[in-house]
Amino acid sequence: xxxxxxxxxxxxxxxxxxxxxxxxxxxxxxxxxxxxxxxxxxxxxxxxxxxxxxxxxxxxxxxxxxxxxxxxxxxxxxxxxxxxxxxxxxxxxxxxxxxxxxxxxxxxxxxxxxxxxxxxxxxxxxxxxxxxxxxxxxxxxxxxxxxxxxxxxxxxxxxxxxxxxxxxxxxxxxxxxxxxxxxxxxxxxxxxxxxxxxxxxxxxxxxxxxxxxxxxxxxxxxxxxxxxxxxxxxxxxxxxxxx
Length: 243
Fold this sequence. Notes:
alpha/beta, Rossmann fold, 5-stranded parallel β-sheet, 5 strands, globular
């Protein structure tokens, strides 16, 4: 297995200790990306990645190598401490640079592990935010380890081990899970937008080229009968709403 680790912490304290402990339960090779070292400029909100192409991002020379490593990996690990009740600015800036994944999801066959630490509160909220972001990217299954350390260096190792081992077993199974209904709705929203009468052209080309336009979900995922019908109905409704 190949894993890419995206570390959103500017330091290497409790969050990184959690990552290192989780890695002991995973079989594979790790490519570590420390966003503090990448020095990604702030996203300037130009929208070029969305309306023209991700290749038009003014910071493509920094962002593309990270994204390429994510695409090449079998599993994705994203780590962040809680800063002001949210992810760090480093990680949020990276997410802002990859906003085009909301329109053009890439990771339907990937699974992810989210690791969050806090000295106080907000760890579950932040883990859920990263989880939601990854599911918009298309990630098949997300596991979450979120721990309130109380400002101490003592970590709940047993909890880290339990969840990371579960993640490892799932990775080695090669099983692809059926998506949640909410994920199907968002899939159909973006598909309806891409196939509308006035689409963003790069979106339309992506959905057709990758075989998503003619499927109820990513073709690699074998939806059960109920979810196939649900997707068809949702797309029919959204085609009418989104013109």
